[in-house]
Design brief:
The protein is α+β, with helices and mostly antiparallel strands. The protein has three helices and two strands; from the N terminus they run αααββ.
Length: 85
């Protein structure tokens, strides 16, 4: 029986989106909003929370810097490694 994503908590939704980013998937705010049954502004806040988490990974845990970028061509967000110059 398929799981109803519209009943997923905020934490579950953020983790699902983060996992998709980690798998290299591109995220469309509208598609995710439709999938989870929330407003696109909610998905934007989720992406902002993931960006904050990535900043904490970099600064506190000294992990490889990564960020979420917006790809204008595909009109979606993706996870990108920040390469030092």
């Amino acid at each position: 029986m398929p799981y109803d994503l519209k009943k997923v908590s905020k934490n579950g939704r953020v983790l699902a989106i983060y996992s998709a980013f980690c798998r290299g998937e591109k995220i469309s705010k509208q598609a995710e909003a439709d999938r989870f049954g929330v407003d696109v502004r909610t998905i934007q806040r989720d992406i902002d929370a993931i960006r904050l988490h990535l900043d904490i990974e970099r600064d506190y845990f000294k992990q490889k810097p990564r960020t979420i970028i917006y790809d204008r061509r595909s009109k979606s967000y993706m996870l990108e490694d920040i390469r030092p110059l």
